[in-house]
């Protein structure tokens, strides 16, 4: 049998890849307006980084990470997410000492998780994410959320739902944690074994359990919002006030949690409400992680970020039937007739491309009609016809494929003719 792509991965072919490039361009342009700078970290890192940075009790680390030993006996992992690597680099490169604070970074690239593949869930997927490190101003939380929303809105998505929550600071979380333990403990034997383990270690994660989602104690569980101390409550109110100031609609959902100790204050998700969008509706997830930098060996530094995958973004665009404005048209297709003309095409084509035009020619010795057909397939705006006769007269015949008009132009004028008609939009 022929070899196929590994399960949960895909080829992105020409025709499709332009959409990815377009999305990445839009996201990068928006990052520029917000002053987030690109960072590129390795595809693989020490496994240890993710055990500390993602948490060794999480499914990602326990069940989904691609871990391997290299020939030197080091335990490495294909990165399952982008935050821990960015924080590792922040610490290693002492970015905390940079006079420009907060340090605002974005990244894009493939992530790897051994998950059960289904619509919207891959084993290799491309995330785009940002991290802002070094500020605990709620305006940064609102900025990060607005950046994510802006990417989606610039691409034309309309059916979006932003949900936010606050996990509070350490004091609030400790009080809430105690209330959760008291709430679940008397009936914990009705819960799955994972939840039983979580009770003392990390009761917040019980709220995240997929198996026990419908247990009556879930909906009556104490809400974190009732345990926020004054400082955390004011922080959360400010985030909301700033979002309102930017006309960003949101819903507060106290069940939105992130189970690890170093997550605090703001957590958010952006979902698609589009009809026909699959079962997995989360497009983007993010939150504040004021303890993470320390966990990875750096000085205490607050941080917040988000990540979304291009795969799910494309699915949302499809569900809303949004076609991205991708330029397909070719500026000029060369049709040549005769040996000398064909030879000469090499030089003109080179000059044309050098001047920045998209240009193509025939390489299969096709007949005139077939060359015109090829020009059509390329959506050529102009077809330049060069025969030996024209060449002798130092002329070239140009056909405007939209209007059907044809003109004979002196060969040395050819590029300026296209410049006038394509770049300046003349006729
Ligand atoms: P997470 O890093 O798990 O918080 O995920 C952040 C975002 O990455 C999600 O909201 C999805 O858009 C995307 N994502 C996570 N896992 C996958 C996957 N297996 N396949 C495609 N996209 C994913």
Condensed summary:
The protein is α+β, with helices and mostly antiparallel strands and 427 residues long. The chain folds into two domains: 244 residues, Bira Bifunctional Protein, Domain 2 (BirA Bifunctional Protein, domain 2), CATH 3.30.930; 94 residues, Rossmann fold.
What would your notes on this structure say?
With 427 residues, the protein is α+β, with helices and mostly antiparallel strands. The chain folds into two domains: 17-169 and 229-319, BirA Bifunctional Protein, domain 2 (2-Layer Sandwich); 330-423, Rossmann fold. 37% of the residues lie in helices and 22% in strands. It has helices at 17-34, 47-55, 59-64, 83-92, 138-154, 170-184, 193-201, 216-219, 230-245, 292-295, 310-319, 339-354, 368-377, 388-392, 414-423; strands at residues 37-38, 44-46, 67-69, 75-78, 103-112, 124-133, 160-166, 251-252, 264-272, 282-288, 303-309, 330-337, 359-361, 380-387, 395-400, 406-410. The strands form three sheets. It has an eight-stranded mixed beta sheet with strand order 1-5-6-11-10-9-7-8. A five-stranded mixed beta sheet has the order 13-12-14-15-16, sandwiched between helices. The protein is elongated, with a radius of gyration of 28 Å. It starts with 16 loop residues before the first helix and ends with a helix. The model has no long low-confidence stretch (mean pLDDT 93). Residues 81, 113, 115, 120-122, 125, 127, 282-285, 307-309, 311-312 line the site of adenosine monophosphate (AMP).
């Amino acid at each position: 049998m022929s070899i196929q792509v590994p399960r949960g991965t895909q080829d992105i072919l020409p025709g499709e890849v332009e959409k990815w490039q377009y999305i990445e361009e839009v996201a990068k342009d928006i990052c520029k307006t917000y002053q987030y700078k690109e960072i590129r970290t390795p595809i693989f890192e020490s496994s240890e980084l993710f055990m500390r940075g993602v948490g060794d009790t999480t499914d990602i680390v326990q069940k989904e990470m691609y871990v391997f030993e290299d020939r030197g006996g080091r335990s490495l992992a294909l990165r399952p997410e982008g935050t821990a690597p960015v924080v590792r680099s922040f610490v290693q490169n002492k970015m905390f000492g940079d006079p420009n604070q907060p340090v605002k970074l974005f990244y894009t690239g493939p992530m790897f998780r051994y998950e059960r593949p289904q619509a919207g869930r891959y084993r290799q997927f491309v995330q785009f994410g940002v991290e802002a490190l070094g500020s605990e101003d709620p305006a940064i939380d609102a900025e990060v959320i607005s950046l994510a929303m802006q990417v989606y809105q610039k691409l034309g998505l309309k059916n979006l739902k932003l949900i936010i929550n606050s996990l509070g600071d350490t004091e609030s979380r400790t009080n809430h944690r105690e209330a959760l333990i008291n709430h679940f403990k008397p009936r914990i034997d009705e819960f799955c074994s994972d939840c039983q383990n979580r009770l003392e270690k990390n009761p917040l994660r019980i709220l995240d359990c997929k198996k026990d989602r419908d247990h009556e104690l879930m909906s009556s569980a104490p809400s974190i919002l009732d345990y926020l101390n004054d400082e955390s409550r004011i922080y959360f109110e400010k985030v909301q006030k700033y979002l309102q100031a930017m006309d960003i609609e949101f819903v507060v959902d106290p069940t939105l949690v992130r189970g690890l100790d170093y997550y605090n204050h703001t957590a958010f998700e952006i979902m698609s409400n589009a009809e026909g969008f699959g079962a997995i509706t989360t497009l983007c997830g993010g939150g504040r992680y004021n303890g993470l930098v320390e966990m990875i060996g750096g000085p205490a530094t607050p941080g917040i970020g988000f990540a979304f995958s291009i795969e799910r973004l494309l699915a949302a665009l499809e569900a809303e039937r949004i076609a991205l404005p991708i330029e397909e048209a070719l500026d000029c297709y060369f049709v040549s007739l005769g040996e000398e003309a064909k030879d000469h095409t090499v030089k003109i084509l080179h000059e044309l491309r050098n001047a920045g035009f998209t240009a193509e020619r025939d390489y299969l010795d096709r007949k005139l009609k077939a060359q015109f057909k090829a020009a059509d397939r390329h959506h050529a705006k102009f077809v330049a016809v060069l025969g030996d006769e024209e060449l002798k007269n130092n002329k070239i015949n140009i056909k405007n494929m939209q209007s059907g008009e044809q003109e004979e132009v002196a060969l040395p004028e050819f590029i300026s003719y296209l410049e006038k008609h394509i770049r300046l939009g003349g006729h």
